[in-house]
Amino acid sequence: MKTPPPSPRSEVRRKANRGHYDRAQIHAIIDAAFLCHIAFNDAGSTHCLPTACWRDDDFLYIHGANNSRLTHALLTGECAVCISHLDGLVLARSAFHHSMNYRSVVIYGRFGAVDEVAAKAAAMHAFLEHVSPGRNRHVRPANAAELAGTRILRLPLNEAAAKIRNWGVEDSPEDMAIPVWAGVIPLSLRPGQPEPEAGCADHPLPELANALRLKDSP
Amino acid sequence: MKTPPPSPRSEVRRKANRGHYDRAQIHAIIDAAFLCHIAFNDAGSTHCLPTACWRDDDFLYIHGANNSRLTHALLTGECAVCISHLDGLVLARSAFHHSMNYRSVVIYGRFGAVDEVAAKAAAMHAFLEHVSPGRNRHVRPANAAELAGTRILRLPLNEAAAKIRNWGVEDSPEDMAIPVWAGVIPLSLRPGQPEPEAGCADHPLPELANALRLKDSP
Fold first, then answer.
1. Is-above-0.80 flag for pTM?
2. Which CATH number does A8-216 carry?
3. Most buried residue, A171, B126, B158, B174, by CB count within 10 Å?
């Protein structure tokens, strides 16, 4: 139920295809995400927390409440951030050769603070644009108190690496005649039926990022 | 673009609704997942890696290659594991009050090894059953060499906590008249068109776990 045991063919494919360090590839994987997972140490313990994220230029951005313990830990120590997308279930003819298709990025480094007011406002603008392109034109922007209560942190992407598996089944030759459906079931995050607030149903539906087209909803 | 600033109402709701420590709730969040993110330390650095996971009784299981650096690090040190599901985008009338609906679990502890052959075979059986119920009856089970090359680890769930946000928009009263669509766009992982291997299209499609019904595919 993992990648195949080493063989000349699979070894080459794994090395060639699973490690990607190209910047455009890394950016694309980050841009397709709404959430990242942050691994960090605080007071001698290791933690793993999910949080919303977005990218601008060659930085990963997150936000949090001002003066939080998380913020302090991230600004004072090294961390690792992982973004991953589960793209499919790879169903093989043998139990062992089942696998999953995915794209993931791991970033190492230390977050820095974005504290200048205009830079914070620009970052929050970029965050909302990432979630729903164009929506900034229609909603009330963050005011001074809201910006003051929010901490923006960013992590440079210079120590980032991607891994991708995006191919089919790799069964052993002796298993090929087993009479069972084998193949890939693609998986993707998709929108359901929008749930408008009272009084909002007549306004135009929002645009969504990441190809989450609402016309695809059930 | 976060939870609202403290107010009597939202403070109570956050405290009451975001922290869940009920075992059934934690199990349900884990059982809905195919992937977890593991935060751990190795040689002085913090790492965050995605890997496949499943639950049996009150343990989270993962697997990996035998004698890997990851396995060694997990067996010799404490870690934190996070499972999260992004359930929706919460689109408010003000930029600041945008949020996301989610379910997440964080588990703290140290992995132990499952090394006895029958226990390993049972764990791999449970893993495939988690991905595709009933599929074990149709595929070739793992043989001795495959089991020997796989390490099974499990983490007790006694130090696990869940967080959930599953409600609507929390705009301030003064923003309620802003003429923009506000509400929740539910998100869920859904299957696309199955991609059978050559010669497999006539076999019955697999069952999928986690309510990923193939009849819902586009």
1. yes
2. 2.30.110.10
3. A171
